[in-house]
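for the writeup, i need someone to sanity check this before i put it in the appendix. the sequnce is what the collaborator sent (i think, or maybe the updated version? ugh). structure was predicted straight from it, no edits. if anything looks off just tell me and ill rerun, i have time this weekend
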Amino acid sequence: MQDIMIMASLLVFLNVTLLAILVPGGPIENRDFSGLKGGVFWGFNLFLITLGITSFIACYLLLISHPYAIFITQIIAVLYFVVYIIDLAGIFPKSPTKMSKSLMLSEIINTSMAVFLFLFVTVVGHGVSG
């Protein structure tokens, strides 16, 4: 069972890494977000930073098989999914710069990874409790 928890932890780590490479001004994200108001811009960034930090905590909790690790990871997976879907749908964040094809492909892959993470830990959770 410990090997499965290590795999789950690695999947969370992969998801947070995939999110981290999408930072504005980074290798893939090149859109202009200067139109976002300060509170909205910083609020969204604070949310993403908190999601990243919580992901690293979840990695550890999975490694030690903490009783709430699966539930926390499921929530994190849903939040990753929501972040990517609202961006792919053009809902938020809005930018006058069009999303590049590489960014769109990355976000589609990342969305898929969030779904996979959710399904994986859900199955693991059923194996632990059942």
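The first helix runs from residue 2 to 20. The helical segments are 2-20, 38-63, 69-88, 101-129.
thx in advance!!
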